[in-house]
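Support case: S-adenosylmethionine complex. Customer-provided input:
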Amino acid sequence: MNDETSAVPPPAPDAQPPPAAVPHRRRPHYRGDHPRRFTEKYKERAPERYAETVAKVLASGKTPAGTHRPIMVAEVLAALAPQPGEVAVDCTLGYGGHARELLARLQPGGRLLGLDVDPIELPKTEARLRALGFGPALFTAQHSNFAGLPRVLAGFGLAGADCILADLGVSSMQLDDPARGFTAKFTGPLDLRMNPQRGQPASALLAKIKSGDFAVLLAENADEPHADLLGEALAGRVLAATTDLARAVRKALPRLNREDGELTVRRVFQALRIAVNDEFSALDTFLRVLPSCLNPGGRVAVLTFHSGEDRRVKKAFVNGLRAGDYAAITPDIIRPSPDERVANSRSAPAKLRWAQKIPGAR
Ligand SMILES: C[S@@+](CC[C@H](N)C(=O)[O-])C[C@H]1O[C@@H](n2cnc3c(N)ncnc32)[C@H](O)[C@@H]1O
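Agent response - structure generated as follows:
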């Protein structure tokens, strides 16, 4: 008789009881070939396990979900010229792409402070950079608004920095996470705050604002050509979800074709984002205190993504040159190369400006 059970060896004397069964959890499924929702993009979010999928997303000029691709890295490094032993501040740490390149060039003996207002992504980026071997003597992550840069430097006993970088706006991690409500591409709460622990979500601002004030906000923050009409149609509305706002915008401007409608929705989101995060006032404060935060001969580079930001940076650098704070400033804006624009579509609107503090001046 062939008794299969007799072939099973008896348990070893010190054998552990089998682990309690863990209920099996199915992966999120999606219809069709391409995952659409953030939760379905589990392969993109685990590059160590799904390198091939991530490579395909990158090759298509897109950014894998949950990551951010640093923009104009070579140009930023050329402007900042970080040297071993120097002090640098990355005012907008994000995913840490620029920081990683700076850190590699500040060694030995240098130091990088990485600031960000986003309390959700900051600890993840800190852990990622630590895992790459950047220890606490070389790198410090600080939850802070760059408007408070003088206080941050003083807190670390630093008189100034040799290199300062600000890569303005939002990160791809913020944009791609529907729970943060930054885009109409996904349904999510109409929030748009980089720091959800402070201020009010965009839905609350929209519900309270008067039509005239909203029209001004749309014109100033996003150069919106239909500002008055949209101010009338949207101000005071209670719209809880990103997609509710997008629908209301399209309904207010029914004659726009699909592409123009989408651009208008994007501008409305941009205007609200700038307002709820107080972005212009943070940028104005930063640009005002910047010369006092740079060591003599120190360099600053600022990447902007729309005209409202670039106008401010240009004006501050030109005035700083005239006032004798800066020895040199960018003669012309620097744009991403055609190759970078194809390789990373999110780089397309970027503009880089730099300035250098006069040597010998504090
Ligand atoms: C475009 S991303 C930076 C990406 C980063 N250079 C990289 O390579 O990953 C902009 C980041 O700046 C942060 N940020 C925006 N305004 C800020 C402010 N006023 N102070 C500090 N961080 C800010 C955002 O939360 C976001 O993480």
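Residues 68, 70, 91-92, 94-98, 115-118, 121, 145-147, 167, 169-171, 194, 282 surround S-adenosylmethionine (CB under 6 Å).

Case will auto-close in a few days if no follow-up is received.
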